[in-house]
Design a protein that fits this description.
The protein is mostly helical. Helix content is 96%, strand content 0%.
């Protein structure tokens, strides 16, 4: 067992040597790497959150712009419909006036035609009566 003492002492010396020269610096480097990785992850998370906020803001502005465009289009459509309705009403009134004028013209023409028909028919009746009376007068004499 005495022969194992130098081996044990050598192992203890190697352990402390490796601990101070290898494991302690290695743990320090790994700790720094972990802290840097955690910092990078935290930074990435913050960047991702900032990007999400900007995306939401962009989507909100886009929705507002679309709403404005739709509102403008609706206003233009409404103006167009109002303009079209006023044009239709004006044209309808113009056509109604034209129909009334044509009715009056036709009534006047109809009255003139009746008058023209009654005058020749009265004259024709007078001629027929004269002709009949002249025959009877000629046959009676």
């Amino acid at each position: 067992m005495l022969q194992a003492v130098p081996t044990i002492v050598l192992l203890i010396v190697v352990y402390f040597f490796l601990k101070t020269m290898l494991f302690t610096p290695l743990e320090r480097v790994l700790g720094e790497r972990d802290s840097l990785t955690a910092g990078t992850r935290r930074g990435a998370k913050e960047s991702l959150e900032a990007a999400e906020r900007k995306q939401k803001e962009y989507e909100q502005r886009l929705a507002e712009a679309r709403a404005e465009v739709y509102k403008s289009q609706e206003e233009m459509r409404r103006q167009w419909l109002d303009e079209q309705a006023s044009r239709i009403a004006a044209e309808r009134a113009r056509m109604q006036a034209r129909v009334e004028a044509e009715k009056q013209r036709l009534a006047a023409e109809s009255a003139a035609a009746r008058e023209n028909l009654t005058l020749p028919s009265a004259e024709l009746a007078a001629r027929i009566a004269d002709s009949i009376l002249n025959r009877k007068a000629g046959t009676a004499a």
